Structures are given as structure tokens and as C-alpha cells.
Amino acid sequence: MKKSIFPIIKIIILTIAIIIAAFLLLQGEVASRARTASASDYPIKPVPFTRVHIDDAFWAPKMETNRTVTVPFALDKNEETGRVDNFRKAAGLMKGAFQGKRYNDSDVFKVMEGACYTLMLHSDQGLKKRLDDLIVIIGKAQEADGYIYTNRTIDPKNPAPGAGKERWSNLRVSHEFYNVGHMYEAAAAHFLATGERSFLDIAVKNADLLVRTFGPGKKRAFPGHQEIEIGLSKLYRATGNRAYLELAKFFLDERGHYFQGEHHTADDPFAVYDGDEYMQNHKPVLEQDQAVGHAVRAMYMYAGMADVAALGGYPEYVKAIDRLWADVVGKKMYVTGGVGSRGGTEGFGDPYELPNRTAYTETCASVGNALWQQRLFLLHGESKYADVLERVMYNGLISGVSLDGLAFFYQNPLEFNGKTKLYQGQVVRAPWFEVSCCPPNITRFLPSVPGYVYAVKDDTLYINLFIGGTADVEIAGAKAVLKQETRYPWDGAVKIAVDPDREKIFPLAVRIPGWARNEPVPTDLYRFADAIAGAPSLKINGAALAMDLKNGYAVIRRTWKKGDVVELDLPMPVRRVIAHPSVQADAGRAAITRGPLVYCAEGIDNGGQAISLVLPENTVFQPEFRSDFLKGIVVLKGKAAGREITLIPYYAWANRGPGEMEVWFKTR
What we know:
By secondary structure, this protein is α+β, with helices and mostly antiparallel strands. It is built from 16 helices and 23 strands.
């Protein structure tokens, strides 16, 4: 009897062992997949902006003005205009109807994001309390299942125009996803800034509702105004919940499958015109090869595609945005880095359609372009993306805010007669707008500037921007402190001290800007009309070093030790830029640049005239630094047709009242 039991016991034991082994193998495979998924990311990592400490004369004052003036001002404006009261009403803390536009919730979230970034750089208990109070209100305004959209919660039977009769019934124009996408970004920023989950939990509750509602086998839809794709990617980073990343991809992949007429009636005032190009719904995203439609939507979508590609491991998305980049930078970008030439659609025109007086070039589109270019650099490691990023940052982006931080441009034309009314009837920058997406975008971009300076890939350390200050970096298993000293963009001399904690071999990749390599942009859209004068030079500890250029970077591979100093000299002659012959608006004209800056003439400096100025090819300009003028700038002084001409950086125009302004000058 006992002998007959032993074989059975052996079989049972063997079976259990097999089951355990299979289970462990399965668990290992799952864990491996999880590790692979979590390891997917951009191949190049930016050095976090909290570890980069800027103290230069150009960006540091702008960031400080943003911290001390613009962020508090924007928080106040959200209160004054009823944007925060909408949350109070939705929370039942006060009575009244919804105020403003259906997308006004997003302005509250964007300013909160900017405030969180500010907190990460500068402790401020008063600002933190203000954020904490807002988070409590937002939490109370959230419906039980996680839904947040104040105009529907306040009065479900009478939501704001365009919101749709019920939840998610008009996503093409309701901005329900756009609003919460900005909330996800703000919540992730708050979590990083404070380590607290109060705001993150609100965002997660909302995102979980969307995950339960939308996706394969569930409700199918896409957001008319892209943004949530970026927000979901940041929420994925903050929580590790891959469902958020997959939802972002789902929304992207839904585009190009629902067309005009399916969700609109002929008399619907919110019906999309010009097919579905306006909201990039004319083709599946992987088939798109030309930038069309609303420029801000496009920039956010392209940035979101980059995030999904990097975090999810979808190389096909990279191929798509590479094609789109070639179209934008090769045919549809202004010399200032601005994008979006048409005012009617706030969007792209035809190839080479780049009018100056009617240029729309929305500030938000410039912010979106900067976000996209940074992501492309992190994917590819080529300097051409940092070149475009720099052009946007120093010209078409910061032109969107006044030097005192209290007024803003929605659109940024390249020619102005001093009289034509700009967005919402303005002839100068305005303190706020009814549709006030641009001011909050400024508040969140400026404190993040330090994060664009340095990046790391494996054992290579990249220097992309030339901004004075220090950075704490980890490279090749060592820690190092970098210190930049420079007066850039006024001067091209850059000194970089490399101070590792121990001797270490690693490549230092220093970007040699395209403008210093005779390329104003990395396509044939613009080119210099004059011969290059002077070439960049590089020294290590005072000794000249031959440049080993790779993808636009001078790569220095050596054993770094304490006391090592790299010196980069970038000659900054005044250069004339001409546009591709197909850009009719710039035919027979030239733009004036120096270093990364585009210059313009203002009437106030030139006898009241700017548009009529003629600058023959032999016009010579001399740079002159004036510390007492427009917060300290280099002006260009020249003479043409017997008269004195003064040019200032484009970003600084319209800080002294309305008047004429010109970027592209007639040459005869």
C-alpha cells in the first residue's frame, strides 16, 4: 500500500514543481516586460532644471520678473476674471453662472504649473499656500466619479456654448480634454515640487475615469484641441501607470477616422471648416507629412507624438514627426522661429506663405514649437533641433511678454504700422485677454528654461544653450559641477569650467550654433546673403583645440579633472538674411541678425518711420551695448541714404508704446 502511494506523491510533487516553475517564469517575463516598458524613454535625458542654477544677465532677470511679477499677476487675473470663481461655483462654495469661455479652466491650471516650477527653483511659502488653497477648491469642484469641467458642473442643463449637451458629446470643440490635459501637467509639476499627492490624486481620479470610458472596445473619440497627450504622458511618468500612456496613443490614433459631418449639423456654429485639416484630423497621424491647420494644436500634437514614441517605444511616430519637422522648418517657419501665418485659422498656410504684416505667429505656438524641438533633440541628438529651439526662445517666444512682465502679445507680427489692431483690438501688448492662453504659457515656460541647457546620453554630456550659471550633473558614473560664464547673446565668448569629483573620461559635446556655421536655419528656407566673417574657435585650458564636429557639436573626449576650462569663441558679426525665393513676402528684402537674435527697426528710434526704411546691401551696422536701454541690450547703429538707422532686438519691440516696426527691409 505504501509503495503504491509513493509514485502518486512523486507525480504530485513534480506537478507542483512544474506549476511553480511556470509561475516563476511567467512572473519573470511579466517583470521583464515591465522593466522594458519602464525603461523606454528618450535616449537623451535633459539635466533637470532644478539642478541648473542660472545667474546670467539675460535669462536670470527674465526668470526673476516671471517669479516676482508675472506669476502673481496671472494668479490675480484668474481671480479677477472669474476663472477661479468657476471652480468655487462648481464646488458649491458660491452661487452664480459660469463666466467666460468653456476652456478657461485651462488658464488656472497653466498658471499653477508655472507657479509649481517657480517653487522648485525658489522656496515661497506664500505661493505654496496659494496653490494649496486652489487645489482644495479644485478637489471640491471635481464630481464624484472624477469628472472636471466647471461650466457643465455649474449648470449641466446649460453649459457654455460649444460644450455639448452632455459629457464628451462635442469633443471636437468642447476642450474637455484640453483642460484636463493642462491639469495633469500642473498636478505632475506640483507632485515634483512638493512631494505631496493632493493635486496628483485629483488628476489620477480624472484620468482613471477617462481610461474606463475611452479606448479600444469602449467609447471612441479624439480631442479637437490636442494637449491631453502631453498631460497623460507626464501623468504616466509621475505614476508609472501605463494605461495613461496607452490612452494618449489611442487619442492620437483615432485622428483621421472621423470626418466633418459625422458630429455636426449644417447650422452648427462650431463646425470645422476647410475639411478637418484645422484640427489635424484629415489623415491618420502616421500618414501626415505636411503641417496644416491650427498651429498650436499641431505643435502640441507633434510634441505628444514624440512623448508617446519615446515612452512607449513606437518608432513609427518618430518617422512621422521627422517628416512634419522638414515641412515646418523648411517651408512654414518665420525667421523669428514663429509658426502659424494665417489669422483666420490661427494656423499654417501653404508652403512659403509667410506674410509679415498679417503674420499671426501666436505666442502659444512658439511655446509649442520650443517644446517640440527639445523633444526632437532628445530623440536624435542633432544640433539642428537645438538651433531652432534657440531661435524660437530668443525671438518669437519672449516677444510675447513685455519687459516688465505685465503685458502680453497673442500674435507676433513681423511688420506693424502702429495702427492696425492686433488680437482683440490691441495695438500694444495687453495685460490679459478674454481668450488668455498665451500669458499662462509664458508663466510656465520661463522657469523651465534651465532644463534646456544641458543633457546626457550614456557617457556624453551635451551643452545646448549658452547661459551663465552652474549645473550639477551626473555623467559616466561621476558627478561634476559645470560653470558657464558668458554675456551671450550679446557676446559670443563662452567659458565653461568642468569640475568632476574625480578624474573621468567622457565626451563633452558643445553645440556650435548653426548661425555660427553659416546656417541661420538647418534648411534652405533662409540663408545668409553675406560672406561669413570669422570662424568659431575652441580652447582647452588656454590651448587651441581643433574642432571635431559631429551632428553640429564640437565633441571633446578627454580625461576631465578639476580646474579644466573650455573656452568657446563665437564671432558675432551683423549678418543679412534672405529668404527662399518662393517666400514672396520677403522678395527683395533682407532681415538683420546678430548671433541668435533677429533685429527690427521701430519708428520711435527712426524719426517715426520703420516700414519705409531702405537698407542697401552696403549698409554697415555697428553693435553698441546700452545697459540703460530696454533692460540692457545691444543696439545696431548704421547709416543708409544719409540717415542714421537704429535697430533693436525683435523681442524688445513695442515696450515704448505703439508705432511702426519692421523686420524685413527693402534693399533698394
